[in-house]
Amino acid sequence: MLSYRYFIALLLCGYFTISAAAPALAPIPSEFIQLPLNRSNANLPLLVMRHDQAIGTVVLLPGGDAGTGKIVDGIPSSRNFLVRAREAFYAGQYNVVIAFRPSDLQNLDYSYRTSAAHIAEVAQAVDFAQHQFKVPVWLVGTSRGSVSATAATIVLGQAKLAGLVLTSSVTHGKPGAITSQAIDHISIPTMVVHHKNDLCKICSPTAASQITASLTAAPQKKFMLIEGGSDPSGDFCEALHWHGFINYEAQTVHLITEWMRKPNN
Question: What is the average pLDDT across 147-167?
């Protein structure tokens, strides 16, 4: 018989459906907190989901301006891929920590995302996750968040992180584009995930496929090209287009978390 949590994972990945008569599943508990930063009068907004049987923690770094959107019943309404897909990471047996834009900033531009100040913010989120959960921490970034995740990983390394996942990576044309950073210094397992139909002009699937070749110090690395999904809408570089794995979020995360379990495969 399937365990309850494994059933939830399969359900989120689209392998089962529930009829209208079936009882509703209990909501996954989450907490929206303000983490004080190491500078005056500034907080880092975090959405935290604790998994009682977690094998690890993912610290998720959204793209764009990393804003929360409107807070509804304590839940950020951001439509970013990683925010929409948070329950799929939870279903993969991971604690989830989503780090949004600090309270004293109006923007998270490309240059700031490689700065020492921003890396210190990410480090505080990672330290919080380690202190709270005491299981290995993976850093996951999407789109502009891939710039942040790469810059932070180069500094934090294996002393703080178990691995790195880059989704819809910024490949060229902007400060901090992935291959413009010192990614040959990354010495932890690294996965690069991109949608085949991503039309964002600074996030080329072809260029993304070449990132792993430069990860010369990573002990395990993998590139994955996603083809599923449906009904993209809006700007090519926004969350509801192929760039955000639209209508294929849970399946994409399932592939990610399965590799995270066994990165040697």
Answer: 98
To which residue do tokens 């990683």 refer? 82
pLDDT in tens, 200-225: 999 999 999 999 999 999 999 999 99
d(C-alpha 193, C-alpha 40), whole Å: 37
Q: Which residue bears the tokens 């004080």?
A: 36
CB 171 within 8 A of CB 207: yes
CATH number of 32-261: 3.40.50.1820
Angle at 156 between CA 155 and CA 161, to 5 degrees: 145
3-state secondary structure of 9: helix
Is 135 in a helix, a strand, or coil? coil
Q: How far is CA 252 from CA 42, 199, 232, 248, 249, in A?
A: 34, 18, 16, 6, 5
Name the residue ranges covered by the structural domains of the chain.
32-261
Give every CB contact of residue 171 below 8 A, 6+ residues apart in sequence: 177, 178, 179, 202, 203, 204, 207, 208, 211
CB 149 within 8 A of CB 141: yes
Report how far Cα 130 is from the mean position of its chain's Cα atoms: 17
What's this model's pTM, rounded to 2 decimal places?
Answer: 0.90
- Buried-exposed string 146-183: b where 16+ CB fall within 10 A, e elsewhere: bbbbbbbbbbbeeebbbbbbbbbbbbeebebbbbbbeb
Rounded Cα–Cα distance for residues 203 and 178 (Å): 10
What is the pLDDT, as a whole number, of residue 28?
Answer: 85
Query: Left, alpha or beta for 242 (phi > 0: left; psi -120 to 50: alpha)?
Result: alpha
Nearest to 51 by CA among 3, 94, 97: 94
